[in-house]
TrEMBL record:
InterPro entries: ABC_transp_permease. GO terms for cellular component: plasma membrane. This is ABC transporter permease. It is a multi-pass membrane protein. Its main location: membrane. Pfam families: BPD_transp_2 (PF02653). GO terms for molecular function: transmembrane transporter activity. It is found in: Cell membrane. The keyword Transmembrane helix applies. Keywords: Cell membrane, Membrane, Transmembrane, Transmembrane helix. The chain crosses the membrane at residues 28-48, 54-76, 106-127, 134-154, 174-197, 228-249, 255-276, 283-305, 311-327.
Length: 330
């Protein structure tokens, strides 16, 4: 037995370069991928390799990132939130409807509160009843779609309050050009969520629950409460994304959330989150949104259409999840 152990080959030692690369955050590699795609786009069409071209992609990515931050919280705890699309639409249409009678501030509060109720139901069913996140949230998405059709029909609402346009579409001078206010809005939201996840007990507990629910239980963490609040915050962020989308695009309709079903998941997994839970960051999600934004630009350049874009997003999700699955099984 001793000889066998002695003869076993030793694991190869990591060199300084390998150790340094291993310490580079995943989000940094994703940002590097975005820069490479941006340069590639410039080679294909030089007019894209400009500040205005960069700002266009960053603006699209900022809106996608806001819609994906809630998904990040769901994935970190080892779940997924497939009710994001119709939570976006429900919050947006509710906000515009209630704005007429309540005013913009109360309508905003009421819409986010309604979104929190949606997340609370998702979290309760998952944490207390034991249904899987996929089944629970896809069922909620279908339920919300029915509510949208019954209450809003196929109408399109365009009476957007001025203050909402100010914080989303207002132009801010930037390096001789201008950026939409939704870009700094996304950055501020990212910083707040980063602080919540990294520097609070609740944030650390969310990662622990995603890594191992059994370990979280042994550590005395209120797992059910953490899951429920995680899904509540996920839905609130989706609702806020819907309201921000209304402000930027100046309209809302029942199918407005559909494009964010695949893209919100893709932004999270491309950003380095593990679909198995316990790993992820809002910074990585922003980087993932930038990559997808540049992919979308390339789709437009080649005139491939939305169907091809969704196929690319789906392929990205499959490849990244397969790679995580292989590393997870080792």
């Amino acid at each position: 037995m001793t000889d066998t152990l002695a003869d076993a080959p030793a694991a190869p030692a990591r060199g300084p370069a390998q150790s340094a690369l291993a310490r580079v955050p995943t989000s940094a590699w994703v940002f590097a991928a975005f820069i490479a795609l941006f340069l590639l786009s410039g080679l294909i069409r030089p007019s894209l390799l400009t500040l205005d071209g960069l700002i266009t992609t960053v603006t699209f990515a900022s809106i996608l990132a806001i819609a994906s931050f809630g998904q990040t919280l769901a994935v970190i705890q080892g779940g997924i939130d497939l009710s994001v699309p119709n939570t976006i639409a429900f919050a947006a249409l509710s906000f515009l409807t209630w704005n007429a009678s309540l005013g913009p501030v109360l309508a905003l509060v009421a819409s986010l509160a309604a979104s929190a109720v949606i997340g609370c139901i998702n979290g309760f069913v998952i944490a207390k009843i034991g249904l899987t996140p996929i089944v629970t949230t896809i069922a909620m998405n279908g339920l919300l779609f029915g509510v949208l059709l019954l209450n809003f029909s196929l109408s399109e609402l365009t009476n957007v309050p001025e203050f909402l346009q100010t914080i989303t579409v207002e132009k801010i001078p930037f390096l001789g050009s201008s950026i939409a206010a939704v870009v700094p809005l996304a950055l501020i939201l990212m910083l707040v969520l980063h602080a919540l996840l990294r520097w609070t007990g609740w944030g650390r507990a969310l990662f622990l629950v995603g890594s191992s629910e059994a370990t979280a239980n042994l550590a005395g963490q209120p797992v059910a409460r953490i899951r429920i609040t995680g899904y509540m915050l996920s839905s609130v962020l989706a609702g806020f994304a819907g309201i921000a989308i209304v402000g930027y695009y100046n309209q809302a309709e029942t199918m407005m959330g559909a494009p964010y079903l695949l893209s919100s998941v893709a932004a999270v997994v491309v950003g380095g989150a593990s679909i198995f839970g316990g790993r992820g960051s809002v910074l990585g999600t922003l980087a993932g949104a930038l990559v997808l934004g540049q992919v979308s630009t390339l789709v437009v350049v080649f005139n491939l259409g939305v169907a091809v874009q969704d196929m690319v997003y789906g392929a990205i999700i499959l490849v990244v999840v397969a790679l995580y699955g292989r590393s997870h099984s080792r």
